[in-house]
Amino acid sequence: MIIFLYGADSFRSKRLLQEMKNKFIKDADQGSDSLDVVDGQTADAKEINEKINTGSLFTKKRMVIIEDVFKNKKTQIFAELIFCLKKVENDEDKVIILRDGELNEKGSMLKGEAKKLFTFLIKQKYVQEFKILKDTSLLSFIKKEAELYGKEIGMPAGVEIIKRTGGNLWLIAQGLKKAALMNEEKNISVAAIKEMTAEIFEEDIFALTDALGAKNKKLALRILEEQYSAGASDEYLIAMLIRQFKILLQINEALNSRLTPDSIASKLKIHPFVAKKGISQAKNFSREKLLSYLDKLISLDFGNKTGRGNARVELTMLIAEI
User: Fold this and answer.
1) By residue range, what is the domain housing residue 22?
2) How confident is the model over 282-298, as pLDDT tens digits?
3) Threshold 0.70, pTM exceeds
4) DSSP three-state, residue 95
């Protein structure tokens, strides 16, 4: 059995993948002896084939998860992988899950054997593309996410968290979790969203950008490592930093226009808390430095989404340059 998960929305694809792993472990492999995760970016077909065909003394079932194989620079792997997968596509005892990020519209930017592999995979019975949620679909996700904690959320609060997070599901999920756990009310209010999203900025990003602004390389690198240790993803950290440096750039320009803190918050449509912290931080950066950091982060984000480079290493190097 082959399952193919792909798309720009890494939050939902990773959540579904974790659910499938948990179910497999619960139902067929409580010792996790018959489950392997392969880094598709660096693996070769021989390694993947060995993982698929490794037997277990405890269960005939087997699950192999192959992450980001379309980022692999060894182009010969794609033809070899098709050959390997064809042998097991009808074997119900072997569950092979391939999960990748955005692969353009129908894999249109893929070439040669990579394109053939994509075409083979999307013809499988179990395929799901995870596109970025927008509008009513995004509001529906927010409602269901609140229900996980036994809460309800109305449209005003839903719109508020979208505005504050830019629709990033990693940030939305974290904000809703905090709002749900920190308030006893059944309904998650706009006020709770404002309070909890302010805390997200304070805890996850302000400390890091404070360290960057103070040119405290040691502290910035420690905070970054703490975020990774806490389970933050490359996508989450890059998105947070891009958003924050965009805000700092806007605040820098607003300060040059001699706007007051309240006027800045109103004009940029950000929480007064964010505006206050941002004003303090923006003073530590020149406009040129903010543009430089933003350009590098956007380039890093593009490279991460298209499989070029190592986001964690490059983010660490960026911080080490301060």
Assistant:
1) 2-129
2) 888 888 988 988 888 88
3) no
4) strand
